[in-house]
Design a protein that fits this description.
The protein contains 8 helices and 12 strands. An 8-stranded parallel beta barrel has the order 1-4-5-6-7-10-11-12, surrounded by 4 helices. Helices cover about 30% and strands about 25% of the residues. By secondary structure, the chain is α/β, with parallel strands linked by helices. The protein has one domain: TIM Barrel (Alpha-Beta Barrel). It is globular. The longest helix has 12 residues. Keywords: Amino-acid biosynthesis, Histidine biosynthesis.
């Protein structure tokens, strides 16, 4: 069976990592706090990938984010995807130059689809992750600009992204974000027939059982959590052990 992935998502702004609940942000700590509380030297034993998103729209803060990204990459031996404020090829190139293996785009998919196409052409589909912020319950809708602007129906946007040839979809439920109540699988009803693009489920995981439910779903290729407190300390490693004990289709790193 093809192995699935466990992903940890970090939200960054102005030198700090943040906890998000329904896209309301709370500062938690800086990079030293992160290293101390998540045993970063061994985090690659717990997760398959790391996603780091810069939420700061102040362009003068970009160098600080790039330096933080580089420092983080130096402490973990797993693939890292980075995004936030990717409005140019130059910004995308800077993220890759500072250690990112993949690029995460969201607003650009609406406002600059030609940029997304160029990045796919330059770096390949496997390098591109399209993040979708969506909510329901009726007429599932997608949003951009950190969930501030409505952009239409989820089904239509998925078809648009398929046409852009992105390599993965990061499907994030706004109404479950940071709640720890579990994922909302309603979004999968909007997935077009014969869908081939890998889906990362995000928004709502607060326990290993939530991760397990996602990994069991045939349409889902990876389960992500951004919940800094529910998986603090060795919580991610414990979650992976529990998932493997339940025969979740994850890689066993000690094999």
């Amino acid at each position: 069976m093809l192995k699935k992935r466990l992903i940890f998502t970090l939200l960054y702004k102005n030198g700090s990592f943040l906890l998000s609940r329904n896209f309301r942000l709370q500062r938690v700590g800086d990079i030293q706090w992160l290293f101390k509380n998540y045993h970063f030297e061994t985090i690659s034993d717990a997760i398959d990938e790391l996603i780091v998103l810069n939420l700061d729209d102040d362009e003068t803060k970009i160098p600080g984010f790039l330096n933080t990204l580089k420092e983080m990459v130096g402490h973990c031996m797993i693939p890292v995807a980075a995004g936030g404020q990717i409005r140019s090829v130059e910004m995308a190139s800077a993220l890759l130059a500072h250690g990112a293996d993949k690029l995460v785009v969201n607003t650009a998919c609406f406002e600059q689809p030609e940029l997304v196409e160029e990045l796919v052409s330059r770096y390949g589909s496997q390098c591109m992750v399209a993040s979708i912020d969506w909510t329901g319950p009726d007429n599932l809708k997608v949003f951009s600009h950190s969930a501030a602007q409505e952009q239409g129906l989820l089904h239509d946007h998925l078809k648009r992204l398929e046409g852009l040839n992105v390599g993965e979809i990061y499907l994030n439920a706004i109404h479950r974000d940071g709640t720890g109540q579990g994922y909302d699988f309603d979004a999968l009803n909007a997935v077009p027939n014969d869908w081939k693009v890998p889906i990362i489920m995000a928004g709502g995981a607060g326990h290993s059982s939530h991760l397990s439910q996602a990994l069991e779903h045939p349409l889902i290729d990876a389960a992500a959590t951004a919940n800094l407190f529910n998986f603090v300390g060795k919580g991610l490693a414990s979650a992976r052990r529990e998932l493997l004990q339940c025969e979740a289709p994850l890689a066993k790193f000690d094999d």
